[in-house]
Write a structure and sequence with these properties.
The protein has about 650 residues and is α+β, with helices and mostly antiparallel strands. The protein is built from 21 helices and 26 strands.
Length: about 650
């Protein structure tokens, strides 16, 4: 009996322990499923009962240096369908074909699909979306996405680039900073039953993503507009195939404006050929011609091979080098270095190049940034063409001395000229100055970067003074002169290589002018190139006046007042080289009536600039938005030398 009771107790204990173990196993398994694997299992469950479609992320905005928007993301309706719910696909395809501008055959294929979700059109025009909503077709649904929009249309198009449908950046800043601009995509979530059938549309919801970062560029929208306007004008007037303008702040390397022709509208990028969308300022190479001469002069002076007052015998305009004849446009005998630069003597520069010799000359060319990328934060920049000095023959050394036999880009030329302007330092040019998050908090700021010292301040000053002589009477760049400012610059007229013959084309040239102003304390470096202008293609005739018009308006915008005087062009020059817009470069002479202030009230920035151009006005602009105040009052005379301004506000 006692043994039986003990056996019962043992059994009770055994089953008790077994029960506890089983309970602990169940509890452990439950903990594992409910806690350890909770997120994974929840994801599986969501996949079974939800249909998730990723939506396009909201890209950050791009602003100019003053905070004016250049690229933003706007809400746009995207249309999708649940083909199972479409009762008559053929009829619906017919109704939508004209509105969506898609073939009915393609729409019918989509609407007849066995899938439960198909995109019909992303980012619709608001008018089209409303028309489709009014049709009230069961099985069609809309979801809000973000569409890239460029409010300034073609302004800075080549710099900004554009995006695809994703939206991923495809060119320009949009491509270079795609990771920063891209946000986290939202998701379209719809519930479905065990058989995968969609439930009530009311259960559909959009889970918001995270907006991308915002970029603030170094570009000034007003200066960009001025550069593009004047470049388009000269391209049209001369029948050129294209052109570029690059404007830099020499002390920092900030890009203030960058224009290319032909241009395009990034809102409609798909309608333009790739050639029109190409940013010529970083992608196109050309032989610089005489604009290259200041860099050789800087190397010669830095090495102390000649002194500024020393004279060079220029062979009366004809000089034999390596079996080839080099000519000047005029017979010169002995010229000082300043005169060699002023009159752009090829023979004088060829002799200086020989004095510097191949290796040292090549070293200075590389130090000025040629033959390598500038580091500009844009995609697609090319290095140009600069052969090894071991491959230079005697004629090559002479040709490179006056800008032939090598190829450069407009951004390289502007960056190198900034070295002369800022006292000998090669700065890295840049476009994006600040990056902020969606809440406006700054997360990154770009500071100017010195790449290297190229020449001493003394050498840079000497070359600067020589370049001022180029724009003075008798120089090749008199049309770049600005009344009240000392202008330093250099003209260039380079033959283009004929791709068929391999030699220089007899009639295709690149006209250019590169310079800076005010010469004593440079605020801007400006490079102007005009590709294949018709007729007389001299840089002094074609590109120099563009420099003057852009520089004059820019200095006014920056509120840099005239100092000193610049001699006017001689009567002989005016007769020999007529310039339609020359009056705009000289001081205004007030008549009895004078120029009168238009009524700018309520106008936008662009409307004001257009009116200023039409009325030939030079006004100081400040603020953003619409005109809230102006001086003098509408209808009042604008007196020469007196301040005239416009203020914008919200």
């Amino acid at each position: 009996m006692a043994l039986t009771e003990r056996g019962i107790q043992m059994r009770i204990r055994f089953f008790g322990v077994l029960f506890i173990l089983i309970f602990l196993m169940i509890a452990g398994r439950a903990y594992y499923l409910q806690v350890v694997q909770a997120s994974e299992l929840q994801g599986r469950a969501d996949q079974q009962r939800q249909r998730v479609v990723k939506l396009a992320p909201q890209r950050g905005s791009i602003f100019d240096s003053k905070g004016d928007p250049l690229a933003i993301s706007l809400a746009a309706d995207s249309l999708y369908a649940d083909p199972v719910l479409i009762e008559n696909p053929k009829k619906v395809a017919g109704q939508l074909g004209g509105l969506l501008k898609k073939p009915q055959k393609e729409l019918l294929r989509l609407l007849s699909s066995k899938k439960r979700f198909v995109w019909l059109q992303r980012k619709l025009d608001p008018k089209v979306a409303k028309q489709i909503r009014d049709l009230k077709i069961y099985g069609l649904q809309f979801v809000t996405e973000r569409k890239r929009y460029y409010p300034q249309a073609s302004t800075a198009a080549h710099v900004l680039g554009f995006t695809g449908l994703d939206p991923k950046g495809l060119e320009g800043v949009e491509l270079e900073y795609d990771r920063q601009l891209q946000g986290e995509p939202g998701r379209l979530v719809s519930l479905r039953d065990a058989r995968g059938r969609g439930l009530a549309s009311a259960d559909q919801l959009v889970q918001g993503g995270v907006a991308g970062h915002n970029l603030f560029l170094t570009l000034d929208r007003s200066l960009q507009y001025i550069a593009e306007k004047e470049l388009a004008r000269v391209v049209q007037e001369t029948g050129a195939v294209g052109g570029t303008v690059v404007m830099l702040e020499p002390a920092s390397g900030r890009v203030l404006a960058m224009a290319s022709q032909p241009d395009y509208n990034p809102n409609l990028a798909g309608r333009y050929r790739a050639a029109k969308r190409r940013n010529r300022a970083v992608c196109d190479m050309y032989e610089p011609g005489s604009t290259f001469k200041p860099f050789l002069m800087a190397g010669v002076l830095e090495e102390g091979l000649v002194q500024p007052g020393q004279k060079i015998y220029c062979e009366n305009g004809r000089y034999s080098v390596g079996g080839k004849i080099i000519r000047d446009y005029k017979k010169f005998e002995k010229l000082t270095l300043k005169e060699v630069m002023k009159f752009s003597s090829n023979i004088g520069l060829a002799k200086l190049g020989k004095a510097l010799e191949r290796e040292r000359f090549h070293s200075y060319i590389r130090d000025f940034g040629f033959g390598e990328q500038t580091g500009l934060d844009l995609p697609g920049e090319v290095k140009g063409i600069l052969r090894s000095p071991s491959k230079w023959f005697e004629i090559d050394l002479a040709a490179i001395s006056f800008g032939q036999g090598l190829s450069v880009t407009p951004i390289q030329m502007a960056s190198a000229m900034a070295v002369i302007a800022n006292g000998g330092l090669l700065m890295e040019p840049y476009l994006v100055e600040r990056v902020t998050d969606a809440d406006g908090q700054q997360i990154q700021k770009r500071l100017p970067q010195v790449r290297r010292r190229v020449v001493s301040e003394k050498t840079a000053q000497q070359v600067r003074d020589m370049m001022v002589a180029v724009t003075e009477p008798g120089g090749t760049g008199t049309r770049a002169a600005l009344s009240g400012y000392r202008v330093a610059g250099k003209t260039g007229t380079a033959q283009k290589v004929d791709t068929v013959t391999g030699g220089y084309s007899p009639d295709k040239r690149v006209s250019s002018f590169v310079g800076f102003v005010p010469a004593d304390n440079p605020a801007l470096v400006l490079s102007v190139t005009v590709d294949e202008p018709k007729g007389k293609a001299y840089g002094g005739l074609i590109a120099a006046p563009v420099f003057a018009r852009i520089a004059g308006q820019t200095l006014s915008h920056l509120n840099i007042l005239p100092k000193g005087t610049v001699a006017a062009l001689t009567t002989e020059q005016l007769i020999a080289e007529p310039l339609p817009d020359l009056a705009a470069l000289l001081p205004e002479v007030e008549t009895s009536d004078g120029l009168r202030m238009p009524n700018f009230s309520g106008m936008s920035y662009r409307q004001v600039l257009q009116t200023m151009e039409k009325e030939n006005l030079n006004l100081k602009l400040s603020g953003s938005g619409q005109v809230v105040k102006q001086y003098p009052a509408p209808g009042k005379v604008i007196r020469y030398g007196k301040q005239a301004w416009i203020r914008f506000g919200a």
